[in-house]
Amino acid sequence: MARLGEFEFIRQLLAPLSQGAPGAFNLTDDAATVTVGHGCELVITKDALVAGVHFFADDAPDLIARKALRVNLSDLAAKGAKPVGFLMALALPDQISDDWLRAFTSGLAQDVTAFACPLVGGDTTATPGPLTISITALGEVKTGHFIRRSGALSGDILCVSGTIGDAALGLDAAKGAYEALSQEHRQYLLDRYRLPQPRLTLGQALANRDSACLDISDGLCADVGHICVQSGVGAVIDTTQIPLSAAAASVLRTTPAALMRVLTGGDDYELALAVPPANIAATQEHGRKVGVAVTPIGRFVEGNGVTVLDGNGQPLTLFSAGYRHR
Amino acid sequence: MARLGEFEFIRQLLAPLSQGAPGAFNLTDDAATVTVGHGCELVITKDALVAGVHFFADDAPDLIARKALRVNLSDLAAKGAKPVGFLMALALPDQISDDWLRAFTSGLAQDVTAFACPLVGGDTTATPGPLTISITALGEVKTGHFIRRSGALSGDILCVSGTIGDAALGLDAAKGAYEALSQEHRQYLLDRYRLPQPRLTLGQALANRDSACLDISDGLCADVGHICVQSGVGAVIDTTQIPLSAAAASVLRTTPAALMRVLTGGDDYELALAVPPANIAATQEHGRKVGVAVTPIGRFVEGNGVTVLDGNGQPLTLFSAGYRHR
Fold it and tell me: Hey, is the C-beta of B175 within 8 angstroms of any chain A C-beta?
């Protein structure tokens, strides 16, 4: 472990992140107590990130920290939950410096404040391997309002939040692809890869309203496929309706084959929703209120599997069902 | 990730561990819902284990799994909490085989049943580094009954459960130390290192009765020191009163210097307690009822720091304040 020592790291850098969570006992105990609001149930999720798999080891430490927290908050968002707190286990290689830890916790502090989500506990250990961050995020949702993956019905409209494909194109760009891309667009896509926006306010507005929801981490087609499997329906996606950022549209103009990355690349952390037709106007209005576009891109149908239609209404054959880390 | 594939690993091997937790949705959703009993609060803790740091990579996979769960359950035990469920993030190196995963989950299944603690969620990822297991354990305790580290008062009696030092001596023995030890005693100490016993029933019996509690993971002196720091008191330990297993006593007969390992070695996962004198008989009776000895080994005093007395009542100078992983 770094020069600072485990106990000083916790006391100096991590304990300040627990303010606002009295049950965290300033990170001085073996465990924390957590309470949720009256009439609410606890929602809990856990995602781990490994250097070299989920981020670049030389990425800015503050961005690594914020992404690690945000991918977990994104799961809470997809379930309609409001953050309550999080726990973090860090496995730190020897070469991590105190400066790195300071930058890491400083980034984390920004998002702890931004999302009102204090650190309530965790663990720090050495590792002979890569930096590994495991976060458990806690949220609350009114009892019974949790939005499942399994509620989509044939006839529901398939919607997505924000724009799709940016993160995968950003990862490609970081690896040197899309040389014709402007510096501004390149940076935009990279930022989308490095710092996802958990759609918490949108998710909370949708809780108990729409049929099914998840966050798009494995890729649009794979994740819509997850809703289909869990709901016992199929889905049709109209590629011409998929909302693209200006930067992603610019990539597709010069590299049309990158459409496959938009359809199957991961890490966007936008929401995919099954919306009953009667709810579509209200759902889009919720999106407008919180400043996140909600765009219909297809529909759920009887049957199974995800069919993707090109500009001529012809089914595309996908080469990859989705994105899996390594 | 292994040949089985992430989704099949979850479906075939992990989902069965979620039986008994309806809010886990058979591990098919992004998050789980968790409810605690009426009048109870949620207790949550998180410990990560790394191959080569916390266990040997070639240890039996079922024992690795059970230890990873048990060190977390031990934290719940120390707080007086009853297990509700757990989440697990696994970072798996490529060389992990399906057979290994089957043995790992089979061991986990044993303890899921033994401790009535279902798997409610988690994450699986590849890693270029060592196997890393991060577990978040959830428990419940009657509201206000959580036993803090910070409640010890001057005059309280310092007690420990079970026997002390076995795990550290077992680790030494695994590395070839204590050649004169009988095979039976060697195996006993190794088992104590590899498979700790979370003192859940004892902890639950003590909830809201005794002043302070933690589980001994860093080492007897270091952990009693943690109670002292958090409680603003000092402690005196009488080495002649420390309960030893027959195997540990056998090591000390041939290697008296191993007393230092008993005092400072980690991983016993016994409980250290601050017991008001008026409660001592009841606390020991609780121990008898659940079959775990509770032994007074000293007392808490005004001041600070941990003083260790030898057989002549003279203070020992400790060379190491405790055990830190790596």
Answer: no
